[in-house]
Design brief:
By secondary structure, chain A is of the alpha+beta class. Chain A contains 2 helices and 9 strands. Chain A has 2 domains: 1-41; 58-192, Immunoglobulin-like, CATH 2.60.40. Chain B has 2 domains: 42-143, Immunoglobulins (Immunoglobulin-like, Sandwich); 150-255. The radius of gyration of chain B is 37 Å and the shape is elongated. By secondary structure, chain B is mostly beta strands. The chains are: A alpha+beta, B mainly beta.
Chain lengths: 193, 257
């Protein structure tokens, strides 16, 4: 009996420990999972509001001048480089494009305003949430992706004479993205309409 | 038991979004001030216009030019200001070829208003509200006075009308001869206006036959010629006459001064 009793305690003791481990893991998953779900569903927001959803570092976006250029009454491409500072890969499925704050500059770093370009006549051809036709996956640890949005910028005929040769800042105020285990997109550049 | 541990661990990894697990992870945002770039074109270099080959034979200067293109890629300029100077550099520009309030949407025009002098021309390209850099000026373009307009003679045309021969006026210009009975001169408003004749200057000379009969016996006729197109600068002959025309058909005769 003593032997049987010890065996029984050891048996129940291991089973309890295993069960406890499983339950603990599940509980953690449930607790954190709720956070993940919160984060996932609030990613279309912009700025600090979305940052509160999790601890992932913000993606950075740098402007790059495309080969094409705007003319009054026409459209042209918008080019940008998205960099992912997180350890994990990031999948981007949409960008939020804003017409607020579009302005002309003398350079693509937007450091000096272009004089005489008060009325730019420039807008996003289609502002608001811009879903990417093909989601892109950006590698972690500083990986980047160069994205060209074809025909995304539009210039009407009110553009001031002083806007000739300017580089326009096309604000992007939000991103729909999530950390992912998916393989990073290759090549690391692409064009989407 | 190991299976239970693995199941729990997998659930936890999935929830945490650890790479290698196809599940949603933390959602990154973007840095504030993020933006893409869209550069604008600019109007490229506008070439100077070319002028008519031999402007010295005419009071009219013909100009044409190739439109500047927008760079780095884009359409051509669509409208232009054409400027005239009396000096090769500096000086004051006179806008020609078109209204004073806007550019013209063509790539050629004629300056029909210059007084005899030496001129320099340039073109400023436009595209919508954009204005390009003014072209270089042309080489000197001389505009000389047209030869004095003069009626040389009158003859019967054998059909009861009068044919005038004359010289002067700008090549290609339209000349109109008015016939009246006033020694002080004739014009379109002469009373009575007996006849008129219209023709074109070719190589500095012209002939014009009246549309109306000029054969009334005993009438003392006078005539005066005008350059009617282009109307500026004006060119008017002195009064020709007196002369007389009479007879019918092949018997008609005219005797001049």
């Amino acid at each position: 009996m003593a032997t049987n009793g010890n065996s029984t305690r050891r048996f129940f003791g291991r089973r309890w420990a295993n069960k406890a481990a499983v339950l603990a893991s599940a509980a953690i998953a449930v607790i954190l999972g709720s956070g993940v779900a919160y984060a996932y569903w609030t990613t279309t927001g912009s700025g600090a509001g979305a940052a509160a959803a999790g601890t992932a570092s913000p993606l950075t976006i740098a402007a790059v001048s495309p080969a094409q250029a705007l003319v009054p009454g026409g459209t042209s491409d918008v080019k940008l480089v998205i960099t992912n500072p997180n350890k994990a890969n990031v999948q981007v499925t949409a960008l939020t494009l804003s017409n607020t704050g579009i302005a002309g500059y003398t350079d693509s770093t937007f450091s000096t305003s272009q004089s005489g370009c008060g009325t730019t006549g420039v807008t996003w051809a289609s502002s608001g949430l811009k879903a990417l036709g093909t989601p892109i996956v950006i590698a972690g640890n500083g990986g980047s992706y160069t994205l060209t949005l074809t025909g995304a910028a539009s210039m009407d005929t009110t553009s001031d004479n002083g806007c000739q040769g300017a580089t326009f800042k096309m604000p992007i105020t939000g991103v729909t993205a999530q950390l992912t285990g998916a393989t990073a997109s290759t090549p690391t550049s692409g064009t989407q309409s | 038991m190991k299976r239970d541990r693995l199941v729990g661990l997998a659930i936890a990894m999935a929830a945490l979004g650890i790479p290698g697990v196809a599940a949603a992870g933390w959602a990154p945002t973007i840095a504030s001030g993020s933006a893409g770039a869209a550069p604008a074109s600019l109007i490229g270099t506008q070439s100077a216009p070319s002028t008519s080959a031999d402007p010295s034979t005419s009071l009219q200067v013909n100009l044409s030019w190739s439109p500047a293109a927008l760079v780095p890629s884009g359409p051509n300029a669509t409208s232009f200001e054409v400027l005239r100077y009396t000096v090769p550099t500096g000086g004051t520009a006179t806008k020609i070829c078109g209204s004073s309030v806007g550019p013209i949407a063509v790539t050629s025009c004629s300056d029909t208003t210059p007084a005899p002098s030496t001129y320099y021309y340039s073109v400023v390209p436009h595209f919508q509200r954009w204005i390009g850099t003014e072209s270089l000026r042309t080489q000197a373009t001389s505009v000389q006075s047209a030869p004095q307009l003069r009626i040389s003679s009158v003859a019967a045309n054998g059909g009861n009308k009068a044919t005038f021969s004359g010289v002067g006026g700008a090549n290609g210009a339209t000349i109109t001869v008015y016939v009246c009975t006033s020694s002080g001169g004739c014009s379109s408003t002469s009373q009575p206006l007996l006849a008129s004749a219209t023709t074109t200057v070719v190589n500095g000379a012209w002939t014009a036959t009246t549309s109306q009969n000029v054969n009334t016996s005993g009438t003392t006729y006078y005539a005066q010629a005008y350059q009617t197109s282009p109307s500026a600068p004006s060119a008017t002959s002195s009064t020709f006459g007196p002369f007389h025309c009479s007879g019918n058909g092949s018997n008609q005769t005219c005797t001049g001064p």
